[in-house]
Automatic annotation (TrEMBL):
Pfam families listed in its UniProt record: IL17R_fnIII_D1 (PF16556), SEFIR (PF08357)
Compartments, as annotated in UniProt: Cell membrane
Gene3D superfamilies: 3.40.50.11530, Interleukin-17 receptor A/B, fibronectin-III-like domain 1 (2.60.40.2160), Interleukin-17 receptor A/B, fibronectin-III-like domain 2 (2.60.40.2150)
GO molecular function: interleukin-17 receptor activity
GO cellular component, one term: plasma membrane
Keyword Phosphoprotein assigned: no
Species this protein is from: Gadus morhua (Atlantic cod)
Membrane topology: Single-pass type I membrane protein
Protein name, per record: Interleukin-17 receptor A-like
Record-linked InterPro entries: IL-17_rcpt-like (IPR039465), IL17R_A/B_N (IPR032356), IL17RA/B_FnIII-like_1_sf (IPR038683), IL17RA/B_FnIII-like_2_sf (IPR043046), SEFIR_dom (IPR013568)
Keyword set, alphabetical order: Cell membrane, Glycoprotein, Membrane, Receptor, Signal, Transmembrane, Transmembrane helix
Keyword S-adenosyl-L-methionine among UniProt keywords: no
Length: 595
């Protein structure tokens, strides 16, 4: 178990405040690669007309002789730089070339060579090259400045490099070093797009994705067409809405394009979305990025609510009448209560604050389709019974598709941190503990539900964003750590979350709700209680009954399948074929979360 905390965490003990300065045990990688600095073999020759020059890679920590400033040569000046690709036996590689020239002044006679120092700023890797030569004259045979270069340095897309060049020997006071930074573009830039590394990350894939949808007698048939890539054999094609999800794994074979068809009976699954909004996603599996490759997405929003679909009109009319009835009843109840009881006093500031709807960002692991249903039912209970707004990836697919998973998480996290009262609720389960250990260096963890989802793994980037804030002094009030005691255990809570209070659901749900409302349970002269949310009361309302039913269904599955979590882990590509589970996914995901 990983017991490390982020750098600079302030830990309070009964006798003192101790600064614990340790390194985070994970470094979350988002579509990036890193390799040791190197130079292509045939790019170290520095000979040129007029001088004999030799160059070699040396240890950057070697000390160089220093001389009085009056005997030291002046510094060089930059010439050209190049970012592109170069070829070796493994294909095209992303490289940088940089050149510089010597000042044509009297100090040139003191030059006994020069040194180039390269620093990769993301990983602090270094590379140094020593050039050994003697300059016979101020100008070269072509009457131009003497020019040298560092060519064929193999680099990584998206990384920044710092290059320093200086003549030898250096002065004993100050220096004449020349320094510049070069940021290598990402793989979508035309300069390195053809590098083998980028090709294996899908840099040239142009899916030209199209979606065609047809309706017939209440059924929907959606066909997704897209171009394949030379470097990706397998693809996951998915369709998803707020409470509906289906996916298919396909292999391209020898085809340059594929089409995948989904068929749905909308009369049975009208709750796809109030706007009939569907998100179609094509996820490739390139050898470079594997499960983190960029996806192609298209949103479809075009429900035919006309006279040909009387069932749709009937459902919406029924919903409208139900809402009108609820509103009328609320008004009657309020007026009746007002006539039979004296007017309450003006609310205190604390009561006014509680009256505002709170927002909760819910972080969870999709361990199993049945557990995902439990999460959805909990959201319904929080919204319907507790008057709380809930932010969940499955309920915000439109914005999620526009921003992408990491930006969506960061956007909501920043909104909650700016709010004085909103919270982040972390539901711990075996998947949360497994993903955290994987981020700490254990074996990588891929769940079947991650492959079914069009946005992939959302938990790992979420942990990377929220753990530093969770363990930061003064930020604990924003975070609530909980787990469903009937289907999970306290062992599923990662070590960094031990700094917070851990709540059992639904036994301690009342305490969780009071935390969300920011109301102390014990106050001078009174004890605050919340009606209808206790362990034996929450299931008396429709949303609570649905939540209890979902928990019991998942618990029954666990009892019949003791190794259920191991069965949900994807061990290899063959095991990742989730097409056969589409029926089970459809059955569990199309439940109405507001039932």
């Amino acid at each position: 178990m990983c017991n490390l905390l982020p750098a600079g965490v302030l830990v309070q003990t009964p006798h003192s405040m101790v600064h614990v300065f340790v390194k985070m045990c994970f470094y979350y990688m988002w579509f990036s690669v890193s390799s040791a600095l190197s130079i292509l073999n045939d790019h170290l020759d520095c000979n040129q007309e007029g001088i004999r020059c030799s160059s070699k890679i040396v240890n950057c920590s070697d000390e160089q002789e220093r001389v009085p400033r009056s005997l030291a040569p002046t510094g060089p000046e930059w010439a050209l730089e190049y970012v592109g690709v170069a070829e070796d036996e493994n294909g095209l590689l992303p490289v940088i070339n940089v050149s510089w020239s010597l000042e044509a002044d009297g100090g040139i006679s003191y030059i006994q060579g020069l040194k180039a120092h390269l620093l990769e700023e993301n990983t602090a890797q270094t590379l140094c090259v020593w050039y050994n030569f003697t300059i016979p004259s101020q100008l070269n045979p072509r009457l131009g400045k003497w020019t040298f270069s560092l060519d064929g340095v193999v680099v990584d897309p998206g990384h920044t490099y710092s290059i320093s060049v200086f003549n030898l020997p250096e002065p004993d006071l100050e220096h004449y070093r020349l320094t510049k930074q070069i940021t290598v573009p990402r793989c979508d830039d035309w300069r390195i797009q053809q590098a083998q590394l980028c090709l294996e990350n899908g840099s040239t894939w142009d899916p030209q994705m199209t979606v065609s949808v047809s309706w017939k007698a209440g059924s929907l048939a959606a066909t997704v067409c897209f171009n394949t890539s030379q470097f990706s054999d397998g693809y996951t094609v998915a369709v998803q809405s707020a409470v509906y999800q289906d996916s298919k794994n396909v292999s391209k074979g020898k085809s340059t394009w594929l089409n995948v068809t989904f068929e749905m009976d909308i009369r049975n699954h009208i709750q796809i979305s109030p706007k009939c909004e569907l998100l179609f996603v094509v996820r490739p599996f390139f050898p470079g990025c594997k499960n983190k490759c960029l996806s192609a997405q298209k949103k479809w929003e075009n429900c035919p609510y006309d006279s040909k679909q009387p069932w749709a009109l009937l459902i919406f009319a029924t919903l409208a009448l139900s809402m009108a009835g609820c509103i009328s009843y609320s008004h009657w109840k309020s007026s009746h209560k007002a006539s039979s009881t004296p007017s309450p006093p003006e609310p205190t500031p604390d009561a006014a604050e509680v009256a505002k709807r709170k927002t909760v960002l819910l972080i969870y692991s999709p361990d199993h389709p049945l557990y995902t249903v439990v999460v959805l039912k909990l959201c319904s209970f929080l919204m319907a019974q507790c008057g709380t707004d809930v932010v969940l990836d499955l309920l915000d697919l439109t914005r999620l598709g526009q921003l992408g998973g990491l930006r969506w998480l960061d956007w909501h996290r920043e909104r909650i941190e700016r709010s004085p009262s909103d919270k982040i609720l972390i539901l711990c389960s075996p998947g949360v503990q497994a993903k955290w250990r994987a981020m700490c260096g254990a074996e990588p963890v891929v769940l079947r539900e991650d492959l079914r989802s069009p946005v992939g793994d959302m938990l790992s980037p979420a942990l990377g964003l929220i753990v530093p804030g969770l363990v930061r002094s003064g930020s604990l009030r924003r975070y609530i750590v909980a787990y469903f005691a009937d289907v999970c255990s306290e062992e599923d809570i990662p070590a960094p979350f031990n700094v917070a209070v851990r709540y059992k659901l639904m036994e301690q749900f009342e305490e969780v709700l009071l935390r969300i409302l920011e109301v102390e349970k014990q106050q001078p002269g009174r004890v605050n209680l919340v009606q209808g949310v206790g362990q034996h009361e929450y299931s008396l309302c429709p949303s609570g009954e649905a939540l209890r039913g979902a928990v019991e269904a998942f618990r029954a599955h666990q009892q019949k399948n003791p190794r259920w979590f191991q069965d949900e882990l994807v061990q290899d590509e063959a095991d990742g074929d989730v097409g056969s589970d589409a029926g089970r996914t459809l059955e569990t995901r199309t439940l109405d979360i507001h039932a």
